[in-house]
Amino acid sequence: MRAMGYEGRKVGVFGLARSGIATARALADSGATVLAWDDDPKGRDAAAKAGIGLIDLTAADLRGLASLVLSPGVPLTHPEPHPVVRRARAAGVEIVGDIEVFARAKPEARLVGVTGTNGKSTTTALIGHILRESGRRVEVGGNIGTPIMDLARLGADGVYVLELSSFQIDLCQAVDCDVAVLLNVSPDHIDRHGTMEGYVAVKRRLFAMQRAGRVAVIGCDDAWSRETRDRLIAGGRHRVMPISAEVPVAGGVFVREGYLVDSTGGVERRIADLTTAAPRLPGRHNWQNISAAYAAVRALGVVASDAVAAIASFPGLAHRLEFVGEAKGVAFVNDSKATNADAAARALDCYRDIYWIAGGRAKEGGIEPLRSYFDRIRRAYLIGEAAEGFAATLGEAVPHARSATLDRAVTDAYRDARRDGAARPVVLLSPACASYDQFANFEARGDAFRAHARAVIDGEGA
Q1: pLDDT per position as a tens digit, 148-202
Q2: What is the mean pLDDT of residues 229-242?
Q3: What digits encode the pLDDT tens for the residues 90-99?
Q4: 162 shares its domain with 247
Q5: Secondary element (H or E) of residue 102
C-alpha cells in the first residue's frame, strides 16, 4: 500500500510499533520525507533497523509538517494530550492515524469497518472469512493482524475488512466505509475519552464519515447502540441494518431461539440453527457477532447459503473462547481477551459448571456486574492485583481461592473439577481484567494459559 498525497512533503510519525513502522515505510516509499520518533528506545531501535530516519519530535520544530501520524496508543485528549500532540497543535499541524493515511490512498476496493466495545476481532475475522470463502479478494487488518499499510493493494473487486478501535477512529477524518458496523457499546476506555458520552461520540464518527446511501449495521442490544440506530434512521442518510442476538428487529438480522433470522427483505426467513451451524462461536455474544457479519456480507452481495456455509467452517480466534482441549472430561477454554466484566459475562453465559480463573489489573466496577452469573460458577481462582477485591465481591456466594498465579490457578481448577464430578466442567480463563500486572498483554496471558492447560492434558494422556 502506498501513501498518496504526501509526495515531496514532510510527515511526522510518532509511535514506532509495527503499524508506525509500516506507515513510515509507506510514506517514504511514496516520496515523503519522514521524521519519526518514539518515546520507547525499543521502538526507535526497530525503526533504525528498518532504515527509517529518526528525529526527536518532542523537541524538533514541527512547523512545515504536512501531518503528524500518531500511534493510536498515544493520548490525544485524555487523561491529557501527549506533549508531541500539544506541540503539533501549537504548530498548526493536523494529527491523523494510519487508518486515515490508508483512506487518503483512495483504494479502489470496498471498505468494511467494524467497531464496538466487544466482539470486534471475531466479527472482523468472520466477515473476512465469509468473503474469502465466497470467492472475494479480501484483506483483513486495522486493529487486528497485519498493519494497514502492509496490506496488499486490491482492485475494485476486492474488500478491505478493518477492525477499528475508538483510538483509531479518533484519528480519522474521512474514512468512508461502504459498510460500517457498530456491535455494542459498554463502559470502556473512559480514561482515554473523558466520559462515556465522549467514548460513544467517537464510535459514532465512523458513521458520520460515511457518504449518503452507505450501509450502517447497528447492534440493538444496548441502549447506546439503539440510540445510534435511531439517530441514523432519523437522519435519513444511511441504509440502516439493525441486528440483535436478543430480540427481533424489523428489516434486519437477529437470532430467535438459536436460529439466525434474516428479515432484511421485509419477510422473516430462518437461515441456520446456530447451536449446530457455528460450533466455534458459542454463546449469545457470538450470535451478535454472527448477525453483524451476516448482515455485512449480505450488504456486499454474498448469498445467504454461502454465508452460512462459511460461518460453519470458521475456526474461531485465539484467546476468544478458544477451546484448548480436554482431559478426563474437563474442558479448558482460553478467553484471555475478556479484559472487562462485560466481556467476561459473555463467556460465563456459555457454560454451566464453570471453574473460573479471573483477575489481573481490575477495570472500573470490577466484577460486581457479574452477580447474575455467579450461580454458574462452581469455584473461582483469583490471580493478580484484583484477587482481594474480587474475593470481597464473591464473598459467600461463590467458593473461591486466591491462587495468585495463573499456573497455580490452572492446577487448582483442574483438580477441583475432577473431584467435584460436575456434569460438563469447564476450566475457563475469562479474567475480566487487564493483564498488565503479570503479563505484557492479553495474548501473553492466553498463551501461558494454553501452555499450562496443554501440560495438564498431555500429562493425563488425553
Answers
A1: 999 999 999 999 999 999 999 999 999 999 999 999 998 778 888 999 999 999 9
A2: 98
A3: 999 999 999 9
A4: yes
A5: helix 98-104
pTM of the model: 0.86
Q: What is the DSSP letter of 15?
A: -
Domains: count for the chain: 3
Q: Residue 51 burial (CB < 10 Å; 0-12/13-18/19+)?
A: exposed
Residue 30's domain spans which residues? 10-99
| C-alpha cell, 180 | 460500517
**286 lies in some domain:** yes
Residue 36 clears pLDDT 60, i.e. is over it: yes
CA 23 – CA 386 distance, rounded (Å): 37
Other beta carbons within 10 Å of 190: 14
> Which residue among 258, 279, 313 closes a domain?
313
Spatial distance between the Cα atoms of 234 and 180, rounded to a whole number of angstroms: 17
What are the grid coordinates assigned to 430, written together? 475469562
Residue that terminates a domain, selected from 281, 313, 345: 313
CA 441 to chain centre: 14
Question: Which cell numbers hold the place of 440?
Answer: 505484557
Please tell me whether residue 306 adopts helix, strand or coil conformation: helix
On whether both 331 and 286 belong to a single domain, the answer is no
Cross-sheet strand order for the sheet of 425-429:
322-327, 330-334, 425-429, 353-359, 377-383, 400-404
Distance (Å, rounded) from C-alpha 442 to C-alpha 435? 6
